[in-house]
Amino acid sequence: MTDLVDRAVGGDPRAVARLVSLVENGSPDLREITARLVAHAGSAAVVGITGSPGVGKSTVTSALVGAYRAQGRKVGVLAVDPSSPFTGGALLGDRVRMQDHATDRGVFIRSMATRGHLGGLAWATPQAVRVLDAAGCDVVLVETVGVGQSEVDVAALADTTLVLLAPGMGDGVQAAKAGILEVGDVFVVNKADRDGADQVVRDLRSTVRLAERAPGDWRQPILSTVAARGEGIDEVVEAIAAHMAWADESGEAQRRRVRRARDEIEAIAVTDLRRRFAALHGDERLDDLARGVLAGELDPYAAAEKIVAAVS
Amino acid sequence: MTDLVDRAVGGDPRAVARLVSLVENGSPDLREITARLVAHAGSAAVVGITGSPGVGKSTVTSALVGAYRAQGRKVGVLAVDPSSPFTGGALLGDRVRMQDHATDRGVFIRSMATRGHLGGLAWATPQAVRVLDAAGCDVVLVETVGVGQSEVDVAALADTTLVLLAPGMGDGVQAAKAGILEVGDVFVVNKADRDGADQVVRDLRSTVRLAERAPGDWRQPILSTVAARGEGIDEVVEAIAAHMAWADESGEAQRRRVRRARDEIEAIAVTDLRRRFAALHGDERLDDLARGVLAGELDPYAAAEKIVAAVS
């Protein structure tokens, strides 16, 4: 294990891949791995990239990788598929676009499916980010589909979150409904050469304008890209840098990092609690309690107390 | 509190509304409320309705309410907005469509924003469903936006989950990527009068055909609707009934209900753990641990152990 971590810290792509797999599979060695990685991590800029299916997340991510590589920065990409807990298999059809960078030693690309549903993304993603961070990535791009919880989870773990939109994916009211204003630091309207792109930009602009802000708060820029042709990507890179500079200055960066560490600690504590309970009573005991609740024999609070009491 | 529960069980809409608000706000009275509700709940059929923004979830939900009312069944609607944890405010712009049913005493409509991000939906939604169930609803429709975690959470709590799609929201590969096959029991292609609807149906059909199944497994039907005109809704109601009959027969219904109860118990245990820790050490202590992890002074597992040890 020590050897594996040393090799990953040294930048060996196979060691990095292996560590991300161990994270994904919830390996019992994670504890030791994490303890060793912590000292080497903490310097990467983490960028979350999210949006509905079809907006072109992979294309934008791939273009950003190219732009950061042109700056000589080492880049990690983590493609998180939060919606396949039942098979545990990621369906990442358009991951092929990333093959432009497949032979570049300065780029690590890993995809990951998050298992289970209570805090799946919250639990595994920060650990995988830490692996890429410790392996010397200057920038880690975390791409995930979604407008719901997964988006919120990505925003929670990123230093800067990009929300991607595209024309024809639902109008501005829908965008507002999905709560993206509260999640995104930078908005990118991709496929900007298509009909309706101007309207998406206008709707976003009026929504951003209406949002309440204190003096000194960040005002989300709205950028347009045609990522498939590389158009507008440099401006996105600049906007990310501007947001990170603002976040450092204002203390927001530190606040987010503390929150991220808290979330990770809590997620680990929960898993630990569950494991202790299963070790003491067998996994079947929780099912028995669940059946008792279903039968109306006890309430879920009483059942939860039994669990907490059992491990205390 | 006893009085409030009694009135809700008796079908008083104001008492129901008040209880859902108490759930939403994480009231300290929840424990007592839940203990009283459990004996009255357990008979409602819970239908999850999910899909990307713009597919017409509210229109389909409203049409389903009408269909169930025509059968003389009492209906509860819970519109869950999982993506506004930062403001805590639900942006339910198209909730207006529900106003068709606003004066019908046989329909309870509540919207709810889920707070915080670790297990937000998993925590509050089953409790709100229990309120509507205990208030005598035969059917509870839980509507939520999203293709990520929120969708998975809805699938976990529903007896039957409808996944809605519409033309122009991304192609079939994207649908597969979003993992909807693993979440949906019934697929509904809404806005079926629009260009591209046939293609969405074809893509879905070939994806469903390719999915691995054991003999006796449920084969997801793919239905087309124009919900704004009520077209295809009766077929959706029939498909839901067919799925529920299959689930009862096969034992899947009971498995889902046990899993749901387990999830709820665990979510309560986690919250309890967090509360105990904060009571013992103050909320600031967790921040201190988080800062220690950020500084590389301790690893998150060691921090989590301190939390669990502190409440043991």
TrEMBL record, chains A, B:
Residues 43-292 form the AAA+ ATPase domain. The keyword Transcription regulation does not apply. The keyword Glycoprotein does not apply. Gene3D superfamilies: P-loop containing nucleotide triphosphate hydrolases. InterPro entries: AAA+_ATPase (IPR003593), GTPase/Isobutyryl-CoA_mutase (IPR052040), GTPase_ArgK (IPR005129), P-loop_NTPase (IPR027417). GO terms for molecular function: GTP binding; GTPase activity. Keywords: Chaperone, GTP-binding, Hydrolase, Nucleotide-binding. Belongs to the SIMIBI class G3E GTPase family. ArgK/MeaB subfamily. NCBIfam families: lao. This is Methylmalonyl Co-A mutase-associated GTPase MeaB.
